[in-house]
Amino acid sequence: MDTLRLTAYLKHKMPQATDVCVLNLVRIPGGSSRETYSFDLEWTESGARKTRPMIGRRDPTGGLLKSEREREYKVVDAMYRAGVKIPEPLFLELDSAVMERPFFIMHRMPGRTAAGAAAAVEPEALRRKLADEFMTEMARLHQLDWRALGMEWLGAPNDLAEPARTQTQHWLNLYQQDRMNEAWPIIDAAFAWLKANPVVADRIAIVHGDFRAGNYLFDDSGLISMLDWEMTHLGDPLEDLGWSTMRLWGHGSLAGGLIDREEYLALYEQKTGAIVDRARLFFYQVLGNAKMAVICLTGIRAFAEGRTADPTMVILLNMVLPTLLEDLAAELKLI
Amino acid sequence: MLRPTPKEIIAGVQRTIGETLMPELKTPFAISQAGTASMVLGAMAEWIESIPKHNALETEDLKQTFDALRPHGESAILEAAGFREALEGGVRASDEEPPDLNGMEAALGALAGGVATGTIVGPVAAEVRGYLKRHLERLRALFGNNSPFG
Question: Which residues in chain B touch residue A329, judged by CB atoms under 8 angstroms apart?
């Protein structure tokens, strides 16, 4: 993104504004599935000078996920309107002529992110508060009436057995596509198990798809905003709970680096009023580890084939994949 | 030996990144990418020597695993569970000269699926589990214990 083109774009999108200025435009780390830019917008409106902190998210040339920016924008917009803690989405641009690749712009929230050991070093009182607020947001999301919100376009499952089957097949297809002809025996075994042991949801809910430590902004007063909605879909709410309790995002016995895993699950039960079916949760923990392994392989392939220059993709190979394989092997009693 | 060695060259490029390039970089993203690139180079300096050894150990272990599994090719349990073809494919891949590592891994993956779903049990399952345990230990030795999250 460059300042001149972004300024011209925003002048066009904000006809009521004069003296539009884009300041401090800088690409920031994180969000490997999109290029993320931070900037401040200044403009004059109704005689008053205004400012607003902004984030721009542009499609990458390659990366961890193959996702659709229009879909993500529509999800963020719907969630914002539904009262979920999320930055306000402002503009979506699908025309690649404007800034080389599609992008969207949203309000920039303050705060920091942390997962695993980085979250675990926060003071216990803050960790407990974050766990409570994180679960409040997860429960709020899972209790939203997606039909009333008009979100059938996310792809409503035909029956309660479909979410587990669809997610398994989706990630298996990506695995077969992105493995670069390499065989990964433990991932093969995981998909064999997932196909042989599908679970049936008790209801269909909006599933964030990446609801975990590291994907929310917080400060010393608590949780500010949930991030990264590019994998949102309709499915089994326990998919989010299973994903968020994976060892990869935690630290020792602390789920998400925040509180003890059992306490974490009890908090979800308390917030939703529903008992967590441990067999279904286990299925989604296995699926989560397999899915993350596939995401690693997708990123590694993009790097190997020159579609991204982000060296973080290589780090996935040695820092993330071994943990996932160990967890899958332990979960499936393969060792 | 030709000097500088690959390890020395990589260490030199890491110094270029750390001492020359990074102080000139202005944005957090560029600094983060340079730091990650340097970290990748550091890992690669180790992998240059260890990956060929790792692949050789994997190949030898899989060959021995399929040698041990070979007598079970006629197993009625394996036949009934639909894994006879996978086992025979693995044995064929292990008999190639040099052994077909990818073919053996693919066959082992299919058998591991049988173990995970409980359709393969007994001595075949024990051989598969034994290989997977050694496989994970080798991966950990290759990559180290470096989870970014803890």
Answer: 132-133, 136
Q: Are A251 and B149 in contact (CB under 8 A)?
A: yes
Tokens of A114: 């942390």
What six digits make up the tokens of A105? 């712009």
**Residue A236, helix vs strand vs coil:** coil
Are residues A257 and B33, on separate chains, in Cβ contact within 8 Å? no
pTM of the model: 0.93
Per-residue pLDDT tens for A43-73? 999 999 999 999 999 987 765 555 578 899 9
What pLDDT shows up at residue B49? 87
Q: What is the pLDDT of residue B46?
A: 87
Q: Does A29 contact chain B (CB < 8 Å)?
A: yes
pLDDT recorded at residue A283: 98
Which tokens belong to A38?
A: 């931070």
Peptide bond into B123 cis (omega under 30): no
Backbone angles phi, psi at B9, to 5 degrees: -65, -45
Tokens (6 digits) for A301: 């392939």
CA pair distance B92, B88, nearest whole angstrom: 6
Contact A138, A241 (CB under 8 A): yes
Q: Which helix (H) or strand (E) holds A170?
A: helix A162-178
Taking only Cα atoms into account, the Rg of chain B, rounded to an integer number of angstroms, comes to 22
Phi, psi of B52 (to 5 degrees): -60, -40
A285, A125, A140: which is closest to A218 by C-alpha? A125
Strand ranges inside chain A, DSSP E? 18-28, 35-45, 48-58, 89-93, 103-107, 205-207, 216-219, 222-226, 233-235, 254-255, 259-260
Q: Is A24 exposed, middle or buried (0-12, 13-18, 19+ CB in 10 A)?
A: exposed
Q: How far apart are CA A256 and CA A137, in angstroms?
A: 15
pLDDT at position A29: 83
Mean pLDDT of A15-41: 90
Cβ-proximal residues to A211 (8 Å cutoff; 6+ apart), any chain: A138, A141, A226, A240, A243, A244
Whole-number Å distance between alpha carbons of A77 and A107? 12
- Write the DSSP assignment of B50-99 as a string of letters: HHHHHHHHHHHHHHHHHHHHGGGGG-HHHHHHT-HHHHHHHHHHHHSSS-
Per DSSP, the three-state class of B8 is helix
Is residue B144 within 8 A of residue A318, CB to CB? The reply is yes
φ/ψ of residue A49, rounded to 5 = -85, 130
B79 pLDDT band (50/70/90 cuts)? confident
Chain A residues closer than 8 Å to B128 by CB: 334
| CB nearest to A315's CB, from B27, B39, B128 | B39
